[in-house]
Amino acid sequence: MVTLTSTAPDAQPAPRTIAPLAPGSRIAVIGGGVAGLSAAWLLSEKFSVTLFEAQERVGGHTNTVNARVGDITHPVDTGFLVHNDLTYPHLIRLFKHLSIPVHASDMTFSVSLSQPDLEWAGTNLNTVFAQRRNLLRPAFLGMLRDILRFNRHAAAYLARSGPHALLGDLLDAEGYGLAMRDWYLLPMAGAIWSTPPSMVLAQPARTFLSFCLNHRLLQVAGRPQWKTVDGGAQRYVQAMLPRIEQVRVASPVHTVKRVGGGVQVRTAGHVDDFDAVVLACHAPTSLAMLDATEAERDVLSRVRYQPNLAVLHTDTALLPRRRAVWSAWNYLAGPSPDAPMSVSYLLNHLQPLPFKQPVIVTLNPQQEPAPDTVLGRYDYEHPILDADAVLAQSRLPDIQGRARVWFCGAWTGYGFHEDGLASAIRVAADFGVTPPWGAAP
């Protein structure tokens, strides 16, 4: 996958001069999500690596928990859920290298609105017209026509979209109706990026269009087969950890400071010296702990995150009212465009689970699940891919490796698992390390 960039900065970055580190040099990797774990795993081939993680577990959005439903207990994923061969090439190769078993997944999608009363899903004609009155509803039929038109012209829109054109501006300029926007495009994008509709409209059009085209979301045929990790994604985390020399969980880093020719990392009660540091945290977290240069501050301060609450439960009241519309991803509209989006992931459709009862992860539930159905609550944050974030991505090379500090994370791309892994591979390349499957998938 190609990392998104905007226009190049006015001034070309100065050439980087990276002093090679001797084998066995000490490297700190801060942040144990997919980017940090992957960076630590890769760099452990040649160096003495210490991985710092603020939480009590490693994995970040890879968060597999044991769900007990009735008399059955089985692992389910509550964060990272699915991947595919087309747009997750490094992740696919990592899983093959680690012998991680995968299973085909279902990626159907539904939309459920209360104002107006509307439910539909894209699985087949029966679910598209699950409400038979929509066969005679002009706005709904107009939405379908607009969807076909948008899909047909998306590549042309991408070719002529300037770096500063926003998705909302594109929709207005091309005359798309509110029904297509509010009943299809914003729910789909909100579900993908876990962001409210207002933030989706503020995305650069290039970002949205290139993602949809790369993932073949705007076509009926030729879509990739989505997959899930059999037994939970935590299996790959556990397979990677033994290679890393030191893993310090529940160890939030307070400061990262350049000292002499190295970098000093301070945690509660400890100060450790390293030859280099890889910051694999969310951008604001990295900025808060680093003695940042002006250029680093300019890049990291541009990236914002959307907090999202994930509730694991079995309350079917948080699924569409019509069972025929139930899909793997179920978008539930919020009370306003600025309200957090809500999506219910029906895990029984996404993962091979032994439960007969529906098991659901709902992001930002608009109504609380019944208390006796709740199995767990988890807080996540997702990067907001607005114009500032895309500009930060384009300027990231300016700050990589300056004074022994590197940066990686899913925020450097589309915000997904593949982007986190790909960013770690690029950082490892600066240290002369390539993954076992090669740098170019």
Automatic annotation (TrEMBL):
The protein's matches in Gene3D superfamilies, at most eight in alphabetical order, are given as: 1.10.405.20, 3.30.70.1990, FAD/NAD(P)-binding domain
Which residues belong to any copy of the Amine oxidase domain? 34-290
From the UniProt record, which GO molecular function terms apply? oxidoreductase activity
Under the heading Pfam families, the entry gives: Amino_oxidase
Give the InterPro entries listed for this entry.
Answer: Amino_oxidase, FAD/NAD-bd_sf, Zeta_carotene_desat/Oxidored
Protein's recorded name = NAD/FAD-binding protein
What lineage is on file?
Bacteria, Pseudomonadati, Pseudomonadota, Betaproteobacteria, Burkholderiales
